[in-house]
Amino acid sequence: MVAVSKQLFDTACRDVSCNVIIHPWNQSCFWAAPHLYKHALIGSAKFYSIIYLAQILMRGKKMMRKDQWMKMGEYYVRSTLLGQLVTATAPNISCLIRKMMGDKFNSSTYLFIPFTLNGLFIYLEPPSRRGLVINLFCNLVIEYYLKVLQRAGYLSVTKAQQTLMFMLGSSLLFYLMRLEGDKKERTPLFWFFTPEKVRRKTEDSKKVCPHEGRCEKYVTKGFATYFGVGLGISLARVILPKIRSPVKAISSIRGKHFKLALFFGSYIGIYRAVVCYLCRKQGVDSALYALPAGYAAGISFLFNPSLGLSIASLTAAFKLYSTILYEKKVLPSNIPLPEILYCFCQGTLFNARLMDPDVCPNYVFNLMKSCSNGMSEEVYKSFSGVVRNAM
């Protein structure tokens, strides 16, 4: 469907009843809510189960402790509530605003304002995880606006340019992460790999690489571990939705499902190999080695190219740099800038899902469909039908 302009929306939807384009499963605003809250809870629980499974796999040995499982359980409940409340309260807010405006819709009050306002539910996430969600949504908004500019003909982002963006982002990101290595608390960041801190050379140890044991084993173990993590995530996406038919699920596995595993494994393997080479060549470890190591590792992007991923590497690096700016009082700490930014990003993205689906990031489609347990597709079907009839 084409992008729905303000003029087209006013023509098609301004005077339409809310049960047509907000809650088509029930004519009553009140009685439509329980149905949506139920499906939003089920959908959010399913969606975040995959997210947390991936995080458990990536945490590895850290999950051997009971307190880590308790913490992950608490975080899972809080994330599920976030998904449910964001999904289910937006129609309530939209209907309420429509009533206040004399039973009229406009292009802002339909989805953008409701999803911007209920973005405040981000406070359900603990601070350590909140930054990860905010960073993800910032990435998606940048991706969305880049696609808008591409469609308008103002720029073109090729696979080669995306690869270069990822290589540069990885280079800066790993460097800043190693600089943070000596801090008691690192900046919360959801990335594939947290590099070891810089090894300080002492008289007691002649080892210069940031690890114990042989370099060959260190590099091989990194590749194998993250190859397994990537493969586990990919297979979970394929098998879990078809778990009731195991044979059918296994038979649906294809070569493309190994792309993420190859990306993860080569990304970490190349990074570790370059760092070890430079440490042994120079006779001392340094955070600066992360610059060429991260840049070289970025070539693994070709296994799993994604505009969103290339943007994510740069924004993650900027997030670490912003921590430095906060510490130096360049950015004010008494204004919740990240949370305000999240509210805007959420409103923009969820509004784009219906109003501008051609360039809306695929992750947003999956997020809304999953967390609403398919209810968002009913809304889109009804909304697009109204718009088509008015064209």
TrEMBL record:
Q: Name one Pfam family in it.
A: TMEM135_C_rich
Which positions fall inside the Transmembrane protein 135 N-terminal domain?
17-146
The UniProt keyword set, sorted, is: Membrane, Transmembrane, Transmembrane helix
Q: Does the keyword Amino-acid biosynthesis apply?
A: no
- How is it placed in the membrane, per its record? Multi-pass membrane protein
Cellular component aspect of the GO annotation:
endomembrane system
Q: Which gene encodes it?
A: HaOG216998
For this protein, the record's InterPro entries field holds: Tmem135, TMEM135_N
| Family to which the UniProt record says this protein belongs | Belongs to the TMEM135 family.
Q: State the protein's name.
A: Transmembrane protein 135 N-terminal domain-containing protein
Locate the transmembrane regions by residue number. 36-54, 105-124, 160-177, 223-240, 260-279, 286-303
Q: Which residues form the signal peptide?
A: none
Its primary localisation, in coarse terms, equals: membrane
Q: From which source organism is this entry?
A: Helicoverpa armigera (Cotton bollworm)
Subcellular location, in the record's words? Endomembrane system
